[in-house]
Amino acid sequence: MRMIDTHAHLDERAFDRDRALLIAQLHADETGVVTVGSALDSSRATVQLAERHRHIWATVGAHPHGAKYVTPDVLRELEDLAKSPRVVAIGEIGLDYYRDLSPRDVQRSVFAAQLELARRLELPVVLHNRQATDDLIAILRKAGRTHVGVVHSFLGDLALAEAFLSLGFYIGIGGPLTYPANAPLRDAVRRVPLERLLLETDCPYLTPVPHRGKRNEPAYIELVAAEIARVRGISIDDVARQTTANAVALFGLH
Ligand SMILES: [Zn+2]
Mean of the pLDDT values across residues 120-142? Predict the structure, then answer.
């Protein structure tokens, strides 16, 4: 696999029109995709996609936005889905205090419950963090074991990146790296070990420059890799090779 988009939402409606075409093109380009569940329905859909295509893997989980809908039954169903050999992580899970679509105490308990699920199934986690770093890190520490995983769509500076690195996490880098306003992010990407970076698109969201404003898609992973190569002063092939090795190691892709 040349590159791996470690965070896509291929199940979303934005891809209904041309999903099959896009998946065939990814195969031709030797691009692998981890397609990420965000609720029970989307987790079912991601597992189905991964079971049909060898270059697609799935994660299952409940996003903090929908935490208020997560019942013990939902958690049990996510656990059943996670037993598919094509499921490589629990996610995306975490806290979102920016949009606050679910009450914060509910977000925290649903996050903790899914960390426990990941521990039980020995799977890494895909973290979503928006303006909730202190609580997120406190819950990770309290979970009592060093969880491995990735902080997806990382948007902070070097100090925050180092906090997550010291907890054993990888840093997921996507389209926002190409946005003019994100100089502190570029500084962090320049200085974090390449062995701890993952490529992602978060498509259909967070489209990189020069396609900003249009639908994002996994093929644009190329633009993210090119920007990492540019800020670090290395070749795009070096970025591709190392980040693919990182994704294979973290998620146990095969
Ligand atoms: Zn996402």
Answer: 96
